[in-house]
Amino acid sequence: MRSVRARAALGATVVVALALVGAGLAVLLVLRANLTDQAGLQAEVVAREVAGQLALDVPYDRLEMRAEEDHPVQVTDEDGRVVAVSKDLQAISGTGTGQVAPAPSPAAGISTGSDDDGDDDDESDDGRHSAPGRGEADSAEPDFGNGTATVDGETADYRFATVRATTSAGVTVTVHAGAPLAAEQEAVGSVRGAMLIGLPVLLLVVAGVTWLVTRRALRPVEGIRREMAVITASEDLSRRVPEPGSGDEIARLARTTNETLTALEASVDRQRRFVADASHELRSPIASLRTQLEVGAAHPELLDVPGAVADTVRLQALAADLLLLARLDAGERPGRTTLDLGALVHEEVSQRTGDRIAAAVSVPESGGFEVTGSRGQLARVIGNLLDNAERHAERAVSISVRVERGGVVVAVTDDGAGVPPDERERIFERFVRLDDARTRDEGGAGLGLAIARDVASRHGGQLTVEGVREGGARFELWLPSAG
């Protein structure tokens, strides 16, 4: 079953079937127990009535039994012999003995309170009346069991109650009385039949409703799938999947899918622009270097060696920048080395001996400038910021380090023309140069600030630019402190 609708319908049907079967069995068991208890109570009432008569020394042949109410009764003595049965009882089981023919013991005779000589001894010698002796019925809880009995040619199941009684002569007899279980069997059978008929119908309804509801709920998902298939086939990332207005999980899925498509479209566009700009930037130094080499090959005396070396250096730097950007775009994680940002600033500035304007360094001796990251990448960021400041400065470049907001801030300031407010985010884009009139040799390829911001972001930091009141621009690199 590859269909979600089929699996959902089958799962719901199985769960409902198990629940209904369990509930049905519980109902049947409770119903049977209640009806069986009612039959046992009826049998106990009949048994106690007969036991009460025996306790009053009623002769066996004069016992009043509920034969007309279909309650079979069997009375046995201490030796297990049958001494009395109800009318029309032809067979019985479940009472300990299957005999139905009374065979009373001579010792079990019950006194009637009269003498054989016929003398009137109702009055004693002293003139007082004497009362006959009385037995007693056992008040203990009766024993119950199930069995069968044949009454007037009809055999049925019965619930038997067993009660004991003692006559005035000290004879203990046992009374077995039954109550029919026909009502219990009929009720349980009716309920069971109704369940067997209704359960399949109910399961069909559950399966159908689940199928329809699931189909309706998954209809937007099918629309999303079809649109994604079209986008994949056409490679048109400007298309978007339909967003249902239900506000449920499927709507959030569609919204997330569209957001992913938007990010993917932006990434692809950025990659295309990157490839186009990189090709354009690489074309110039390669073409210049080729021209110089071809001229040198034809006329060695005209070979501009310094120019060829400069173009080669520029080409090497551009290739290094492109390689670093490619690694950053591929998700390369920075190192976890702990380093002192103040010492790194001193080291980078000390290596820049050929700069047009020497940078003034301000690093407090208090320390506390430890950060975690890649030493090479952070050194590249500081170098790019110093390159940018030197390129635009008039007379001064300064770099300072301070602790702020739970991190370390490196600020690079120049006294140049500054960055217009509406261009302060654009300058961090790749291959962006605000001064289009400058030559590429003077302005670079426009990758330094883009690389610096990407590296700062991957280290959990920020790179921002702001204006200076005296004129110029201040670039601030914030990195979280180590630990």
How does this structure look, described?
With 483 residues, this protein is of the alpha+beta class. It folds into 3 domains: 1-101 and 133-234, no CATH class; 237-332, Helix Hairpins (Orthogonal Bundle), CATH 1.10.287; 334-480, 2-Layer Sandwich (Heat Shock Protein 90), CATH 3.30.565. Helices cover 46% and strands 18% of the residues. The chain has helices at 4-55, 182-234, 249-298, 305-329, 341-350, 375-392, 440-443, 448-458; strands spanning 73-76, 82-85, 89-93, 136-137, 143-151, 154-166, 172-180, 337-340, 359-362, 370-373, 397-404, 407-414, 462-467, 473-480. The longest helix has 53 residues, at 182-234. The two termini are 53 Å apart.
Write the layout of secondary structure elements.
Blueprint: H1 4-55, E1 73-76, E2 82-85, E3 89-93, E4 136-137, E5 143-151, E6 154-166, E7 172-180, H2 182-234, H3 249-298, H4 305-329, E8 337-340, H5 341-350, E9 359-362, E10 370-373, H6 375-392, E11 397-404, E12 407-414, H7 440-443, H8 448-458, E13 462-467, E14 473-480
Parallel strand pairs: 9-11
Antiparallel strand pairs: 1-2, 1-7, 3-5, 4-6, 5-6, 6-7, 8-10, 11-12, 12-14, 13-14
